């Protein structure tokens, strides 16, 4: 956007001479927003041609709203994200061992030599001095350092410094001494302090299966642990302090309608201020541990609860709803899901208790040593690193599970190995040649055809009718496709007819899909193929390829298919895996 013009009028930054804004260049806009915040600018206005529908819709998806129209231009406006927050991990130790835990970056540093209270406090003071008004204590379990927190709060009060404080805790180690100190800190301003409880379930057996407590490090027997946490929530609310309950959604573990209702009702009945539902953060390490199967999207929860949750407001980081007109419910994706371009305006400054600063949670190799004298200069250095990630990834990110873009058509190249490989052998070959995992997707498909036509004749038509369920969603989605083989290029052109003709896909709940398929039999339509896919996208420089393991439920046989949206030209991998181009329809190959 070379010709973009920026003017300032009062507390508004006005951007004009705009070309199309999209995923690849949005980082330029977020950099302007970040710079505007430093100048105490409150709003960004962007003037867009009324004919530039792509930019208009893109900006609306990213938090902009219509302000006015002047001639052939719309002005869209967004309030600048102006929270400067510091996230401080007081310890990597924890009395729980949650099976999906990323440890606030424990991979970033396996061994810590914690700084003294005075050194940590000097960092906090320097941050406050530079307008970091929001401080979060996290861990591990930060209340293993409860005495340190009490000391910090007393020092802040003595120094007449009152930033907003949040403690992210599992809630098992709440003590009256800490609550007394907090009450003294907040005085009449209860908004100054907040507890974020990591709960995950209100059923004791499920809760214990998730959190896996360290028996020697909890103040009660295992069977009474959840009740103790509930009691501590009630104790905090009795002092009129703010409590938020965090629940990481884990598919088929804590996501049933009954589970979610129990959570919502508990919060409502106990006057909990907020509930936050979060998507599971899927890292490469967690994929290797088999954790991906638990990933489910927030949209799946909202689909089930759209009648009970009333939209309240949208912020930069999350959507908020009301349950029974009172309890605030937040639906928040991992910040990394929002994309690197937005990280400049979304993320906190993350420090460990050994005074290490990690600008990017997913890139722990970039680490900066800090002290109070250099804190701000190091943050600026980290900000430049994040800017570069924004340029590289745009509205994407290194995260391994991302929302799929709805498209009208795509090109696909398919390859098959000439010899039989084990999954572990292929993964090792790709790793040895420096390929990295960049995305993961598992899904199930049910293919439907007229019962009067045999499989071979049906597939020759190149028209496909199917239902598929992504493992991160609840329910099957209808899809109409047209598949054409382009012989000259040895590629397949796949057209998604639902999107192309503007026909809205049906979505059938999983528990009702068989009833719907039985209903289709009355119209002489039958399921002729059921497939389960396990796909992983690998990338190295300009080369990318998906490794797909597909199993047919008809014969329980598994086949390996490699896929790429561009011609795969890494000759070393082609030779090592003995890949040949698949020149017949994928379904025909699978049915053999």
TrEMBL record:
Q: Which terms does the record give in the GO molecular function aspect?
A: catalytic activity; iron-sulfur cluster binding; metal ion binding
- InterPro entries in the record: Aldolase_TIM, Elp3/MiaA/NifB-like_rSAM, Radical_SAM_PqqE_MftC-like, rSAM, rSAM_sf
| Keywords of this entry | Iron, Iron-sulfur, Metal-binding, S-adenosyl-L-methionine
**Domain of life according to the entry:** Bacteria
Spell out the CDD domains in the cross-references. Answer: Radical_SAM
- Kindly give the SMART domains that the UniProt entry links to this protein: Elp3
Against Pfam families, the record matches this protein to: Radical_SAM
Q: Where is the Radical SAM core domain?
A: 78-326
Name of this protein? Radical SAM core domain-containing protein
* Species of origin: Fusobacterium nucleatum subsp. polymorphum (Fusobacterium polymorphum)
């Amino acid at each position: 956007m070379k010709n973009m013009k920026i003017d300032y009028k009062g507390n508004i930054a006005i951007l004009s001479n705009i070309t199309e804004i999209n995923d690849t260049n949005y980082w330029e806009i977020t950099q302007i927003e970040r710079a505007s915040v430093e100048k105490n600018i409150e709003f960004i206005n962007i003037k867009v041609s009324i004919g530039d529908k792509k930019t208009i819709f893109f900006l609306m998806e990213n938090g902009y709203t219509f302000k006015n129209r002047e001639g052939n231009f719309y002005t869209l406006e967004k309030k600048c994200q102006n929270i400067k927050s510091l996230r401080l991990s007081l310890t990597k130790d924890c009395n729980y061992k949650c099976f999906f835990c990323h440890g606030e970056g424990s991979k970033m540093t396996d061994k810590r030599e914690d700084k003294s209270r005075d050194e940590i406090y000097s960092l906090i003071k320097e941050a406050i001095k530079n307008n970091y008004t929001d401080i979060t204590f996290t861990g591990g379990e930060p209340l293993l350092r409860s005495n340190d927190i009490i000391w910090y709060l007393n020092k802040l009060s003595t120094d007449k410094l009152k930033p907003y404080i949040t403690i992210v805790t599992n809630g098992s180690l709440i003590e009256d001494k800490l609550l007394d100190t907090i009450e003294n800190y907040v005085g009449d301003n209860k908004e100054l302090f907040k507890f974020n409880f990591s709960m995950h379930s209100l059923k004791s057996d499920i809760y214990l299966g998730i959190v896996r407590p360290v028996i020697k490090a909890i103040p009660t027997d295992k069977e009474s642990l959840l009740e103790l946490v509930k009691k501590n929530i009630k104790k905090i609310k009795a002092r009129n302090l703010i409590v938020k309950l965090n629940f990481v959604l884990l598919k088929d573990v804590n996501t049933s309608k009954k589970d979610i209702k129990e959570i919502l009702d508990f919060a409502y009945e106990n006057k909990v201020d907020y509930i936050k539902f979060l998507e599971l953060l899927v890292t490469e390490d967690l994929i290797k541990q088999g954790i991906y199967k638990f990933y489910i999207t927030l949209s799946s929860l909202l689909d089930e609860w759209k009648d009970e949750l009333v939209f309240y407001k949208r912020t930069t980081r999350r959507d908020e709803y009301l349950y029974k007109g009172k309890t605030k419910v937040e639906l928040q994706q991992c910040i990394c899901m929002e994309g690197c371009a937005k990280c400049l305006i979304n993320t906190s400054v993350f420090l460990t208790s050994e005074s290490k600063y990690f600008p990017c949670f997913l890139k722990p190799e970039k680490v900066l040593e800090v002290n109070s004298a250099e804190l701000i200069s190091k943050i600026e250095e980290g900000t430049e690193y994040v800017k570069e990630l924004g340029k590289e990834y745009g509205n994407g990110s290194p995260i391994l599970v991302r929302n799929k873009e709805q498209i009208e058509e795509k090109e696909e190249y398919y390859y098959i190995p000439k010899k039989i490989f084990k999954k572990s052998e292929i993964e090792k070959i790709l790793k040895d040649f420096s390929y990295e995992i960049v995305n993961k997707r598992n899904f199930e498909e049910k293919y439907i055809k007229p019962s009067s036509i045999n499989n071979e004749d049906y597939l020759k038509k190149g028209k496909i009718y199917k239902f598929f369920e992504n493992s991160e969603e609840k329910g099957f989605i209808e899809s109409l496709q047209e598949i054409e083989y382009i012989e000259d290029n040895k590629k397949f052109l796949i057209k998604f007819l639902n999107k192309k003709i503007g026909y809205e896909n049906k979505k059938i709940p999983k528990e009702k899909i068989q009833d719907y398929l039985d209903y289709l039999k009355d119209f002489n339509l039958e399921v002729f193929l059921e497939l389960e896919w396990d796909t992983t996208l690998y990338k190295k420089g300009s080369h990318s390829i998906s490794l797909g393991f597909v199993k047919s439920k008809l014969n329980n046989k598994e086949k390996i298919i490699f896929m790429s949206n561009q011609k795969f030209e890494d000759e070393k991998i082609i030779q090592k895996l003995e890949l040949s181009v698949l020149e017949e329809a994928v379904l025909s190959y699978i049915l053999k």
